[in-house]
Design a protein that fits this description.
This protein has helices spanning 71-84, 102-113, 128-132, 148-151, 156-165, 182-193, 217-228, 240-244, and strands spanning 7-12, 15-29, 39-45, 67-70, 90-94, 118-123, 140-144, 170-176, 201-205, 234-236. It is built from 8 helices and 10 strands. The protein has one domain: TIM Barrel (Alpha-Beta Barrel), CATH 3.20.20.70. It is globular. The longest helix has 14 residues, at 71-84. Helix 1 (71-84) crosses helix 2 (102-113) and helix 5 (156-165) packs parallel to helix 6. Strands 1, 2, 3, 4, 5, 6, 7, 8, 9 and 10 form a 10-stranded mixed β-sheet that branches. By secondary structure, the protein is an alpha/beta fold.
Length: 247
């Protein structure tokens, strides 16, 4: 599958700067996965390389969504959030798919690392080559394994390569819907286990959206037992920000 790049590089004398599209920058609490409830500054990039049927940020998916900003402008916007939110120490790069903007992220990170800020990457886990460029600089990685029933394409090899690169503080989310099958879920679990059985897995019941229906909870509990046969840390955590009605 071809991937469209969402940034541009311009050289002026010895100064190089990049521009990309930002959907929004805001402060809230993390609503998904193992770090749910922790306050973060969210940098939401526009554009995605997938078409998941349960996408809950469809306005960020188009290439032309959001506003064009330079790295300097993105840093300035994050700084403004920090001025009013003194208790926030983590910056979350999300989307869309933030790794389409890996080059931009690599320029943002050093500025805030000097101030002791941590970085969090929320990714669909398919762009492992781009991830390899910033893997050592990301403190927390929330990686989705996309089931073929949801996105229409198999990404098993891409997910495997991504997990091999991630060296620290990674957990995997698998969104399950009424269409999810046992076989694809087992394949996802096997992919994780092939790299490290201690990688935490979060089973995330889909938030109903249009004709997207959640899986019965008893079925989800069965999937949890299946995963626990191969993995050491398995939990069921819904999208808490959707449940609480917060951004």
């Amino acid at each position: 599958m071809a991937v469209v790049l969402f940034f541009s590089v311009f050289s002026v004398a010895d100064y190089t700067f990049m521009i990309g599209r930002i959907s929004e920058i805001f402060t809230s609490v993390q609503g998904e996965g193992m770090y749910a409830g922790i306050p973060m500054i969210f940098v939401r990039f526009s554009g995605c390389n997938l078409q998941c049927d349960y996408c809950d940020t469809p306005l960020s998916r188009p290439v032309v969504a959001g506003k064009i900003k330079t790295v300097a402008e993105i840093i300035e916007d994050i700084e403004k959030e920090l001025e009013s939110k003194k208790n926030v120490s983590i910056i979350s790069f999300t989307g869309g798919e933030p790794l389409l903007h890996a080059e931009i992220i690599s320029e943002i990170i050093p500025h805030f690392k000097k101030r002791g800020m941590k970085t969090y990457l929320d990714t669909n886990g398919t762009l492992y080559e781009k991830f390899s460029k910033i893997a050592n600089d990301i403190d927390y990685v929330a990686m989705d394994i996309k089931l073929p029933s949801a996105c229409g394409v198999e990404y098993w090899q891409e997910h495997l390569e991504f997990l091999k690169i991630a060296k620290k503080n990674i957990f995997v989310k698998i969104v399950v819907t009424s269409k999810s099958t046992d076989n694809e879920f087992k394949k996802a679990v096997e992919t994780i286990a092939a790299v490290d059985v201690s990688i935490p897995l979060v089973i995330q019941p889909v938030t109903p959206l249009g004709d997207i229906v959640s899986m019965p909870f008893e079925k989800i509990r069965i999937l949890k037992k299946i995963a626990e046969q191969k993995l050491e840390n398995v939990s069921i955590i819904p999208q808490m920000h959707k449940k609480l009605g917060i951004r």
